[in-house]
Write a structure and sequence with these properties.
Elements: H1 9-40, H2 55-82, H3 85-117, H4 125-146, H5 150-177, H6 198-241
Length: 242
């Protein structure tokens, strides 16, 4: 069995209908566990007080904002190379979720930054590139809405996704590229010494898993809606020609 079988709309609809309840249940369990554990059963940090607990929303949303764009890049490339409609629709479905994640990350970052840095916003390299990434999300969504022909829209948004990927990378590695700025390093790292304390680290892992699973649920639901919408438009066009 080839993975490309799932690019067939009928196969995708069948498989996603089976998978959705499982992913929904897992998302609910991991999110509730991580957020309740993190917000109610972890201590205040010595230097940050209760504001440290914002990492349970800020870190997962920031990670998802960047990685959702990477997912859109992959699915857009599949469309541009192999012309599989489900992949283009999956990229379209993911974009609003990515925009919301970006806004959550920027908002929670501002809440963290005001007491920690004394300002709601700083033109820090990572913050600036992250803001630009959010503008690319807006542009991507607007481009889909502006073009009537879905294949042309998929082509042009795929090219936009390639360009926007530069800022997705900058958002992830800006601190490494520039040894300046207020933003601290990664909360999670391959190097265990760079991670937050274990008392915060374990619930944070649950929250990250919950955000990932929630994203999968939302993308499956939205992609299924896009597939149905395209089928409906095809039927309406057929009826007009009949």
């Amino acid at each position: 069995m080839s993975i490309w079988e799932y690019a067939n709309p009928k196969k995708f609809m069948q498989t996603s209908a089976w998978a959705l309840p499982w992913f929904t249940g897992l998302a609910a369990i991991t999110l509730v566990t991580g957020l309740v554990w993190g917000f109610f059963f972890t201590p205040e940090a010595a230097n940050f007080g209760t504001t440290v607990k914002i990492i349970y929303i800020h870190v997962p949303s920031a990670m998802m904002a960047i990685n959702i764009w990477v997912m859109m890049l992959v699915t857009s490339l599949i469309w541009l190379i192999r012309r599989h409609h489900v992949s283009a629709l999956a990229a379209k479905a993911a974009a609003p979720v990515g925009l919301v994640m970006t806004l959550i990350a920027l908002f929670t970052g501002a809440i963290w930054g005001q007491p920690m840095w004394g300002t709601w916003w700083e033109w820090d390299p990572r913050l600036t590139s992250f803001l630009i990434l959010g503008l690319f999300y807006l542009g991507y969504i607007a481009l889909w809405q502006a073009i009537d022909n879905p294949d042309t829209a998929a082509d042009l948004t795929g090219v936009l996704c390639l360009v926007g990927s530069v800022f997705a990378l900058l958002s992830r590695y800006a601190v490494n590229f520039w040894n300046q700025g207020l933003h601290q390093g990664a909360s999670l790292s391959v190097d265990k010494q760079e991670n937050v304390s274990d008392v915060y680290w374990y619930p944070l892992l649950f929250c990250i898993a919950g955000f990932i699973l929630l994203f999968i649920v939302l993308v499956l639901v939205r992609t299924r809606t896009e597939v149905r919408s395209r089928r409906l438009k095809a039927l309406e066009a057929r009826e007009r020609l009949a």
